Amino acid sequence: MAANRKIVILPAIWALLLCSMCAGADWPQFRGIDRDGKSAETGLLKRWPVGGPKLLWEVDGLGDGYSSAAISRGTVYTTGMTKGQEFVFAFDLNGGLKWKICYGTGWAGSYRATRSTPTVDGDRFYLFSGVGEVYCFDAASGDIIWSLDVFSKYKGKYPLWGMSENILVDGDNIICTPGGAIASVVALDKMTGSVVWECTQLSEESTYCNPRVFEMGPNRIIATMLRDSVVGIDAKTGKLLWADSLDGYHTDRKRAVNANVPIFHEGRIYTTSGYDNGGAMLQLSPDGSKANRIWTDTTLDVHHGGVMLIDGYLYGSNWRSNSRGDWACIRWSDGKTMYDTEWNGNKGSLIYAEGMLYCYDENDGDVALVRATPAGFTPVSSFKITKGKGKFWAHPSISDGRLYIRHGDYLMAYDIKNKR
Q1: Is 307 a domain residue?
Q2: Which tens digits make up the pLDDT trace of 266-300?
Q3: What is the strand order of the sheet 240-245 is part of?
Q4: How many domains does the chain contain in total?
Q5: Assessment of whether the complete model's pTM goes beyond 0.90
């Protein structure tokens, strides 16, 4: 089905609280409700049929894009680029196009494609374009409510592959990283786009990281990675609380890909970056105002496929080259390697639901179902994505018993419910 025109629809009736509907079904932003890659759904298949789970529907005509699917209140959102312009699409749960909106000029440098996944928050959603413009949309109609060129406003400097951040919603604010000489990280009022705070203590470049928010003692903290450090910022004021320099364990600073969402658990933060830079564990003070690096590792050297924390163990795929890597597990407490296993020779992205890892090979398009256990990496089932072109870089999504896979021009929805 070609997604090539805007279709006018009647306004949807929106629920009052986002969480009431998305607790088990929705996947409203990049890597799910909490940005940790986890779905709370149950009743899913633990083994797929030969050839993979049933394909419910597929759409093409999306253009070039590495955007994942965001699913909220019966609508599936994603983005794509055609002839240098970025578009956002909305589909119903049967794959029918609701609307298609052009929202601006896309990234014209290396790997020309959309990067950002819509972040849905109630009756609005937010996008960060490849050239550093923030957009707020009406989630029902796709109409643009406001926009702000934060890249220009804060005198940003593009990283090698453009702006690839997914907007974080934190209460009344949205958080983004223009990576500018004036401020690296800023908060905007999500209703109006007006500036709430600017972290002017930082002037580091953005390097594709997606920030995470958490509470520690009395403080609410934004954690993210910039070009030269892992930082913690007061979510209320924008004041820099701490910064841990990447010096001392990052060996390749030229390419500077720090794309993975930081993992927060029990007063600690783990980050990892690829390119043989490895990962690091930070211990926070009881109020979160200070951070101390307690160990580093070289095994879980994740490029941009995400990291999972499951029952005291971290899972991901590591970097051996820009296209190759293994699948690895380390212990949360001390970084001890549990396994480091080759699967097709390729690295990729992964998410989690009901005891299983869903692994997506970024070179060949293989999708595997793997038990999340430190005992080893052994695919239970797998199938291959054959539609679409280019790298398989979009992270999978799970919503209401469906597995959503994006590849280039195509978006596919698979039935992973256990019908027994």
Answers
A1: yes
A2: 999 999 999 999 999 999 999 999 999 999 999 99
A3: 212-216, 219-225, 229-234, 240-245
A4: 1
A5: yes
